[in-house]
Amino acid sequence: MSAVPGRGAAFLRLFLLQGAWTYERMHGIGMAFAAEPLLRGAFGGDEPRRRAALARAAECFNCHPVLAGVALGASVRAEADGVPPEQIRRLKAALQGPLGALGDRFFWAGVVPALAAAGVILAALGLPLAGVVVLVLGYGVVRVRAQQWALEAGLAEGMGVSARLAGSWLPRWATAVAGPAAFVVGLAVPLAARALVGALPAPAHGVALGAFVAAALLVWRRPADCPPIRVALVGGALLLAALLLWPGGAA
């Protein structure tokens, strides 16, 4: 597949994946739009095969949009390798859940909250433009790199992409990024409050004690799907921020 043209066009079209989202096919139409340059290069003048593969690419599919390239590349590679259509459909169906879960954990519960909180911190410290740059540029770099990796992994592995996905950086980082993200969010909350109201409404030690007690209660009564380390990091960051940032609080 390395010699098949259309890779760059497919990569760029993946940025528009959600522009054609529908309740009936979800990301299916966008997947077909992104797959078309690759399928054109893979099948050349074999128009019946190209049209059939394009129709399959447009079938209902849903996952995290940044990681959709894994399924796109793998299905196009499988089409070019002559894999039976039903096996390709089963592969895409099997990838939906993992790609959705890993993408949500890595981006929506990790990268995006961390970068947004970092931007809030910079804005609260009097650097609003730097905060915007950190958020927009930071997310853009991560998004582009992850999308590039996803498409390359799919094209390289085809039907074996599940093993590549399981052994990649993504499952590890999807778990590891949550704790630091929670810590940064915890630091951003009191900073933003202080910037908005000038000072927090309670004495430093009272706020610190309240944050500690709240974190302890949340760890004890946490939802089943909320790791205690995440709650503890949020509480610890609030505690640290209250002690250090409150006027006279460190005295």
Task: Walk me through the structure.
It is a single chain. This protein is mainly α and 251 residues long. It is 75% helix and 0% strand. The chain has eleven helices and no strands. The protein has helices at residues 7-14, 28-43, 47-57, 68-80, 85-124, 128-157, 161-166, 169-176, 178-197, 204-220, 228-245. Helix 4 (68-80) runs antiparallel to helix 5 (85-124) and helix 4 (68-80) packs parallel to helix 6. The longest helix is centred in the middle third of the chain and has 40 residues, at 85-124. It is elongated and about 75 Å long. The termini are far apart. 39% of the residues are buried.
Summed up, what is this model?
The chain has helices at residues 7-14, 28-43, 47-57, 68-80, 85-124, 128-157, 161-166, 169-176, 178-197, 204-220, 228-245. The protein has 251 residues and is an all-alpha fold.
Q: Roughly how many Å apart are the termini?
A: 65 Å
**Major beta-sheet overview:** none
Mean pLDDT metric: 85
The count of DSSP E runs of length 2 or more, i.e. the number of strands, is: 0
Looking at the structure, what is the overall shape? Answer: elongated
Secondary structure: helix percent = over 70%
Structural class of the secondary elements? mainly alpha
Uncertain regions spanning at least 5 consecutive residues: none
Rg computed from alpha carbons, rounded to a whole number of angstroms:
23 Å
Strand fraction? under 5%
Structure annotation, total helices: 11
